[in-house]
Specification:
By secondary structure, this protein is mainly alpha-helical. It contains 15 helices and no strands. Helix 5 runs antiparallel to helix 15 and helix 8 packs across helix 15. It starts with 6 loop residues before the first helix and ends with a helix.
């Protein structure tokens, strides 16, 4: 059954996400007033508040179903609009100053990260399909990559749940912890944006990890992450060509495989982001439109961060096996080391 998106069905979840987002804004304003600056930015506060509410509050199934639809809509569709609008405020030539080196770095990181994560998982005892899911989630875009690859390799439901659960939780940890690497690693704002884009799992998490450091970091991180997401198409095609279906025949004896369509892996908001960024760079969209559009994008993003937090239940850690936790954690550390190495080897400044 398809989801029915109507004002009535979306209102409870969207309303809750907005309420948590507004609370996060007020907390950040309070930090600035009392401490002189926001120690924890509104984006991160929204995620943490959402996680706390999700973990401590257990509504009835009826209430949860009503809320989850709107929360999911906010975390996905509203976020996509926010990312698309962000294109109006970026200076595309500035973001692309690294030239071909940045593109090479993204491809190398995905290929090496995917290979290394897979073999680490296998060494720790993960089944082939679960190792593939963890590797793709770590190396490309978290839950989206897992959801895209799972039907292609005919992954078991428990494998999908295990890989998504801990990846979502660890992604929040990365959002909070990654900015602390800026000073020890002596990274410029541009370099940190590249690091965030290369290592953080999902687009909303990149926004939360990068924009609190600087606007440039957030813009660079978003662009790098969106290009990294585009790698999902070739990766899914690779597994589609390699995988042999366990149930290859239909009732009439005709061989079948999970249907693959490349258009599924070039999301509209990526095209929109790049298109608006190009129009802004060529002067079609005036500079005066950048600030108000960025503000709208920021408000929508905070609501999306709250929804993202509302979708993460810390209690699921108890249900995830140790090999999965070790594989995801080890792969993430290797990804960060690899990304920092690529930034310096490719002389990305």
């Amino acid at each position: 059954m398809s989801k029915s998106f109507t004002l009535e069905t979306l209102a409870p979840g969207v309303g809750l996400s907005v309420a948590v987002g507004v609370a996060a804004w007020f907390i950040a304003i309070g930090e600035e007033r009392w401490l002189g600056h926001a120690v924890i930015e509104a984006l991160v506060v929204a995620i943490l508040l959402g996680m706390i509410i999700r973990t401590l509050w257990t509504p009835s199934k009826h209430v949860a179903d009503r809320i989850n639809l709107g929360v999911g809509f906010t975390a996905k569709q509203i976020l996509e609009v926010a990312v698309c609008l962000l294109g109006v405020s970026v200076d595309l030539p500035q973001l692309l100053k690294a030239g071909p080196a940045l593109g090479v770095g993204i491809i190398l990181l995905v290929v090496l990260g995917l290979t290394g994560s897979y073999w680490l998982g296998r060494a720790l005892g993960l089944p082939h399909k679960l190792a593939v899911l963890v590797a793709t989630g770590n190396s490309i875009c978290g839950n989206s990559a897992i959801a895209a690859v799972a039907p292609v390799i005919e992954a078991e439901p428990e494998h999908i749940a295990s890989s998504i659960a801990f990846t979502a939780i660890l992604g929040v940890v990365v959002v909070i912890g990654l900015p602390f690497l800026v000073r020890p690693l002596a990274l410029s704002f541009y370099q940190y944006g590249v690091l965030a884009g290369l290592t953080v799992y999902a687009v909303p998490q990149v926004l939360a990890a990068a924009f609190p450091v600087s606007v440039l970091s957030g813009q660079v991180g978003t662009l790098v992450k969106l290009v990294r997401v585009l790698m999902l198409g070739p990766v899914v095609l690779f597994f589609a060509l390699r995988h042999r279906p366990e149930h290859p025949h239909t009732g009439d004896g005709v061989a079948t495989k999970p249907r693959f369509s490349i258009t599924r892996f070039v999301p509209w908001f990526i095209i929109g982001f790049l298109g608006l960024a190009a129009l802004r760079s060529f002067g079609v969209i005036p500079l005066a439109a950048a600030t108000p559009t960025r503000n709208v994008s920021g408000w929508l993003t905070v609501a999306s961060m709250a929804a993202l937090g509302l979708g993460v239940d810390l209690k699921v850690i108890k249900r995830v096996g140790r090999p999965v936790i070790m594989t995801v954690s080890g792969s993430l550390l290797a990804l960060i080391v690899l990304a920092v190495g690529l930034i310096h080897v490719l002389k990305i400044q």
